[in-house]
Amino acid sequence: MVSGRIFRWVIVPLSGLGILLAVYFRELFLRSPPPILQPIPLETAMWSPVESAKFAPNVFRPANNQAQDLGKPEDYIGRPPSHHFRDDGIVEVNPNGQHPIFELIDRAEARWQAKLNRASKNLEEAIQEYRRRYNREPPKGFDVWWDYVEKHNVQLPDEYDHIWRDLEPFWGMNPIDLQRLQKLQESYTDTYTVGKTETDPRIKLLGVSFSFPVTSETQHHLNGAKDFISLIGDLQEHIPPFRAVFSPHDSPTLFTDYQIKAAALEAAAKGSYIDLATVKPGRRLGWLSGCSPSSPARQGNRTSAPQSKKTFIDHHTKAMDPCLHPQILEGHGEFLVHADPGAKEVLVPQFAYCSTKLHHDIQTPLLLSWVEDILPRSDDPVWEFRLDERLGWRGSNTGIYHSPETRWRSAQRARLVDFAQDLNGTVKVLIPSHTSKKVGEGAEIPKQKLNPAIFDIYFAGEPVQCGPTQEFCEQLARAYEWRKRQNIKEAGNVKYILDVDGNAWSSRFKRLITSNALIFKATAYPEWFYDRIEPWVHYIPVQTDYSDLNDSLLFFRGGLYGEGSHENLARKIATDGRTWSKTFWRKEDITAYLFRLFLEYARVMSLDRDSLSYKS
Ligand SMILES: *[C@@H]1O[C@H](CO)[C@@H](O)[C@H](O)[C@H]1NC(C)=O
Ligand SMILES: *[C@@H]1O[C@H](CO)[C@@H](O)[C@H](O)[C@H]1NC(C)=O
Ligand SMILES: *[C@@H]1O[C@H](CO)[C@@H](O)[C@H](O)[C@H]1NC(C)=O
User: Fold this and answer.
1) Where is the Glycosyl transferase CAP10 domain (predicted)?
2) Ligand 2: does its nearest atom lie under 6 Å from the Cβ of 424?
3) In the prediction, which pLDDT does 308 show?
4) pLDDT for 159-215, tens place per residue?
5) In this structure, which of 65, 100, 234, 278 has its CB flanked by the most CB atoms within 10 Å?
6) For the domain 377-585, what is the CATH code?
7) pLDDT, tens digit, 9 for 90 and up, residues 251-294
8) By the 8 A CB rule, do 176 and 605 touch?
């Protein structure tokens, strides 16, 4: 599933198409976490304002210090944490505490409940909350947006920090510059432009710049525009005139220089603009140019020593940040493909279907692989009728081009399959238990006993994205055991399903979370919905190095014979995930997101931002 680097590496070189368009649109994207913002932290451009204060104590403090700090577990579970919750979103296990997953679930449930409880109940409250978080007035049309939200029962009406994160740097740029950059971008190959002119109330496709003709075969590259226009429907009349340029690729393309983004955020916080003639990128450091000089990635060793402590994810989008977790750069196709990516010399306002913490593509949700439900319902049995208790995964070897010259072996999918099929040696796992008060250090178990019993993880089909010779593809075919693809009915027999990235974000997540299975998710793409979902409540977050996967799985399913299992919790999270999908990821929820995003976008791009602000 998922494509993009495919195009970059295969279609482009092989067919000379030149573009890539990524295309298989997946469902959308991004989001990141917590609440309570205010202007921005220079140092922490890549993190949320709240998170940031911890790494950059002297730069702009969040204005509203009295707002609850969701980072402290004792605030809401009434006792000190027994494990060490780190600022980078990871919890370190204390062997003398109880199993950390209990605490992770408690903490996540409290956080989710608090978020639901504090949601604005009317327009007035929503405006107040908007001002509190972002320190400015909402965009013009906010009342119409609120009506839509109310009428369609869109939940969590304040949780759109993701939009803020995507657009805030542009507030620090002169709209004259932004319009010029936007216009220039329209002329580049591999873009298309949608928008609305002064004279026509309808949003239209205004231009296409592909290196090939748009035909019935290639027009799916424009699906993002089609989805957008159909989802926004009649609401489009309320969006001020705008032009928006989209990349049809499935991967983000705008790598951000930290220094430029930090300068833009600093200007935005002061209500001024950066001067493009003087603000220049920092030293070229490969992907690390996207990170603050004080970030762990730039302070420490790039390749960290193997972790001696057991760890789990507490805060998922922080765990996706390569500036906090530089090992992501060495283990994910998105980053492995370019050893020395050049950052953009300027921030470019362009939309894409996904992004990472190191890119500034503005993310727009789409409908690729979106499902309302899994039908017929008999293909999605309830928990008790799912017989396979291994962790299941089938997929192609996407994520990177496979050749003797690329680092494909380090990419997320090959690592996963290698790890699940390795039978040599022992592995140390936390032994789940119903009686022990202490989780302990873990016990060594021979992999040949453990792996076949708990993993059903294989490449499916045959090698793709490989070359340059057929011989190399054949080597790949021999190196792995390729299974047949799994259909939806077969997946319905599986209790525990893993979701990992392919060439870009995983479009299958919408279908998976809608099912009655418990979903484990490892990803480097903070999609649009992460402020609106809760790990450990709706799904199980997994580190991209999979170091927590064994222990999470064993906690829920129990040991080799199911001993010490917590299936009741597994069933609950699986069911709550499905309910979440049907309540928080409906077409109406995507529409509300897009509508708000484009009200904001039209304003930040406008020469008269003030007139496009909401007037009570
Ligand atoms: C990086 O690792 C090397 C070898 O382990 C060590 O000598 C050095 O002090 C480390 N540097 C930093 C900045 O941690
Ligand atoms: C298993 O691992 C050991 C130690 O790393 C190595 O010497 C041996 O060759 C491996 N066996 C197989 C079958 O790969
Ligand atoms: C998890 O289990 C697999 C299979 O036994 C093993 O290869 C891997 O090293 C284990 N990972 C950790 C972090 O223990």
Assistant:
1) 328-608
2) yes
3) 76
4) 999 999 999 999 999 999 999 999 999 999 999 999 999 999 999 999 999 988 888
5) 100
6) 3.40.50
7) 999 999 999 999 999 999 999 999 999 999 999 999 999 999 99
8) no
Distance 418 CA to ligand 2 centre (A): 14
Return d(Cα 138, Cα 442) in angstroms, integer.
Answer: 51
**Ligand 3 centroid vs 459 CA: distance in angstroms?**
18
The HSE-up count of residue 227 (CA atoms within 13 Å, CB side) is 26
Confirm if 393 and 519 have CB atoms less than 8 A apart: no
Report d(CA 572, CA 326) in Å as an integer: 33
Residue 326 near residue 304 (C-beta atoms within 8 A): yes
Residue 51 — φ and ψ, nearest 5°? -55, -35
CA neighbor of 571 nearest in space, from 384, 396, 445:
384
For residue 14, pLDDT over 60 is answered with no
* Amino acid residing at 254: L
Q: Candidates 294, 295, 301, 302: which one to mutate for ligand 1, based on the most atoms within 8 Å of Cβ?
A: 301
Do 45 and 56 meet the contact criterion of CB atoms below 8 Å apart?
A: no
The Cβ-side half-sphere exposure at 100, using a 13 Å CA radius, reads: 26
Domain ranges of the chain: 4-58+75-118, 377-585
Which residues 6+ apart lie within 8 Å of 149 measured at CB? 157, 592
Long-range Cβ contacts of 564-568 (<8 Å, 24+ apart):
564/431, 564/432, 564/433, 564/434, 565/432, 566/101, 566/432, 567/383
* Pocket probe mutation, ligand 3, options 304, 308, 311, 419, max atoms within 8 Å of Cβ: 419
DSSP 477: H
The helix/strand count (H/E) of the chain reads as: 21, 15
pLDDT tens column, 294-340: 999 999 855 555 567 899 999 999 999 999 999 999 999 999 999 88
Q: How far is the CA of 310 from the centre of ligand 1 (A)?
A: 21
Burial grade of 404 (CB within 10 A; 0-12, 13-18, 19 or more): exposed
CB-side neighbour CA atoms (13 Å) of 70: 25
CA nearest to 406, candidates 502, 503, 337, 332: 337
> From ligand 3's centre to the CA of 31, what distance in Å?
29
